[in-house]
UniProtKB/TrEMBL annotation:
Sequence ranges assigned to domain G-protein coupled receptors family 1 profile in this UniProt record: 39-286
Protein task: Putative odorant or sperm cell receptor.
Name the UniProt record assigns to this protein: Olfactory receptor
Keywords from the named record: Cell membrane, G-protein coupled receptor, Membrane, Olfaction, Receptor, Sensory transduction, Transducer, Transmembrane, Transmembrane helix
InterPro entries associated with the record: GPCR_Rhodpsn, GPCR_Rhodpsn_7TM, Olfact_rcpt
The keyword Membrane is assigned to this record: yes
Stored PROSITE patterns: G_PROTEIN_RECEP_F1_1 (PS00237), G_PROTEIN_RECEP_F1_2 (PS50262)
Record-linked Pfam families: 7tm_4
């Protein structure tokens, strides 16, 4: 039997696309990736440069943009390479590293979205005490806690996966390496891995989802207690961008992970939505639905580009 040391590469089958149109999809996904980089870099620059955006909400939004940059950069470059390559191989160590960073960045984003939901709850329920309650120390602690929890969780799962013997079919029916797609390739007992991954998913992803639902239940209760219609509309508008991001992240994320790892077109669509499209859409969502971001974008344009015109 082969073991882990004998196998040096896996084969990523990638997207089920006919070879004659792979170049078209390469251009499409390259454009999406470049828009993701440009949009999230612009959001980071704008939040850092404009003092009007130096608030907890935009501090968390900057972290979300950084996460989107990281998450898309973990999966998209390799996918683009495989669209133009015939071998479509990836070293075992690189595959484990990619699976680690996919799990870690996805877990951090889940925690961060829960933190942002709590931030919106505090802003709407206690507007006069918002600055005191969401101080810099608390915001930094919540962000560091999100990163630390996700990376420790990912590290434990990857270390257990790295101890497996991979001696079965080396083909992964996906465009990226994920933990659930590695287990069928092993001839070792993977039940501890599945159990650990299930517990991590329940505690991490479903736990943060429950926290978000709880925060929004309190937000809705607070909004309904506001007497004026304009006050209700203004309070809800501060949450609309975050709520849209939550729906995109958890909707596509849950569906892609709940579907079996078979390489079916439906599974690929949800995985692409989760890994490729959502990181590009988040800056657009916040810039189109948020008046302060649009105003900051106009100020930055006048400051840096208007003198050149």
């Amino acid at each position: 039997m082969k073991n882990y040391s004998a196998i040096s590469e896996f084969v990523l089958l990638g997207l089920p696309i006919e070879p004659r149109i792979q170049a078209v999809f390469f251009v499409l996904f390259l454009l999406i990736y470049l828009l993701t980089l440009m949009g999230n870099f612009l959001m980071l620059l704008m939040i850092r440069a404009d003092f009007h955006l130096h608030t907890p909400m935009y501090f968390f939004l900057g972290q979300l943009s950084f996460l989107d940059l990281c998450h898309s950069s973990v999966t998209v470059p390799k996918m683009l390479e495989n669209l133009l390559s015939e071998s479509k191989t990836i070293f075992v160590e690189s595959c484990l590293a990619q699976a680690f960073f996919v799990f870690a960045t996805g877990g951090t984003e889940a925690c961060l979205l829960a933190v942002m939901a709590y931030d919106r709850y505090v802003a709407i329920s206690c507007p006069l005490l918002y600055g005191q309650l969401m101080n810099k120390q608390l915001c930094a602690g919540l962000v560091w806690g999100s990163w630390s929890l996700a990376f420790v969780d990912a590290l434990i799962n990857i270390l257990l996966a790295a101890s497996l013997d991979y001696c079965e079919d080396q083909t992964i029916p996906h465009f990226s390496c994920e933990l659930s797609s590695l287990f069928p390739l092993s001839c070792s007992d993977t039940s501890p891995n599945f159990t650990l991954l299930l517990c991590s998913s329940v505690l991490h992803f479903f736990g943060t989802f429950i926290m978000i639902v709880s925060s929004y239940a309190r937000i809705v209760s607070t909004i309904l207690s506001i007497s004026s219609t304009s006050g209700r509309s203004k309070a809800f508008s501060t949450c609309s961008s975050h709520l849209t991001t939550v729906i995109l992240f958890y909707g596509s994320g849950f569906l892609s992970y709940l579907l079996p790892t078979s390489g079916s077109p439906l599974e690929m669509v949800f995985s692409l939505q989760y890994s490729v499209v959502t990181p590009m859409l988040n800056p657009l969502i916040y810039s189109l639905q948020n008046k302060e971001v649009r105003a900051a974008l106009r100020r930055m344009f006048r400051k840096y580009f208007h003198p050149l015109l």
